[in-house]
Amino acid sequence: MVNSPKTNSQQETSEEYLYDFWKSLPFPLCYVDPLHFVLDINEKLEQVFGYTQVEIAGEDIEKFFKEGSSLEELKKEILRKGLVKKEAIFLAKNKKEIPVSLLAIARKDKQGYFNGYFLGIDNIYENEETYSPLELKGQIKEKTRELEAKLSELKNSRLALLNMLEDAEESKKDVEEERERTLSIIANFVDGLLNFNMENELILINAEAEKIFSLKNQEVTGKSITELAKISSLESLIKILSDSPKPTKTKKIKEVFKKELKISERLILEVSTIPVAREDERTGTLVILHDVTREKLVEKLKTEFVSISAHQLRTPLSAIKWTIKMLTDGDLGELNQGQKDFLEKIYISNERMIALINDLLDVTRIEEGRYVYELTKVSFVDLIQKMVDSYENEFRGKEIKFSFKKPRTVPKLSVDVEKINLVFQNLFDNALKYTGRGGKVDILLKHNKKEKEIVFSIKDTGIGIAKDQQDRIYTRFFRGGNALKIETEGSGLGLYIAKNIIDAHHGKIWFESEEGKGSTFSFSLSLK
Ligand code: ADP
Question: Against a cut of 0.70, is the pTM above it?
Answer without folding.
Answer: no
